[in-house]
Amino acid sequence: PEQAARMKKLQEQEKRQKVEFRKRMEQEVSQFIQATGEPRRRFQPMNKIERSILHDVAEVAGLTSFSFGDDEDSRYVMVFKKEFAPSDEELEAYRRGEEWDPARAEERRRLREMAAQQEEAELERGPTPPGPPNDYKDKYRHLIGSDAAKAAARTMEANKAYGCVPVANKRDTRSIEEAMNEIRAKKRLRQAEDE
């Protein structure tokens, strides 16, 4: 009976703490709603139960909320006013653990747009007409001369050992069957020792 009473007392205490926590979160959220220059608010890292209470408070208040952070100790909640609901890009930044920078995102978007426009312009131009056939060696003649490549080809000879390991270099001279038999024997020995 004593243990049951203690359990009941603990449960009541936990319940009280949750109610107090919820009241505190409701106050913070209403302050956040009244703060005009604050489109989003990041809360301190908290445990799973506290996060779920905060998500619920935010939902009731008509706000959008998300949890970020990898491990349980550092997970935190961010609350957004509806008119400042985060874009997918913004959410991705938070998931990567980065600060969201609207200016940088805008720059990235502009670069992507420009790249898309360039690609479109290239497609409209159509394929480039084939140029006059030329000998690619002409392009490099000033670098290699005209007979350097032929001389190099003459001096090069195949490496006979390429791809093959000479028997002398092999450490293990057993055949596959011998190696497998040895492994099986060791296994049987181990099983016999275990029994």
TrEMBL record:
Pfam families: R3H. Residues 19-82 form the R3H domain. SMART domains: R3H (SM00393). Residues 91-138 are annotated as: Disordered. InterPro entries: R3H_dom, R3H_dom_sf, R3H_sperm-antigen, SPAG7. CDD domains: R3H_sperm-antigen. SUPFAM superfamilies: R3H domain. One of its GO terms (molecular function) is nucleic acid binding. This is SPAG7 protein. It comes from Helopsaltes ochotensis (Middendorff's grasshopper-warbler). The gene is Spag7.
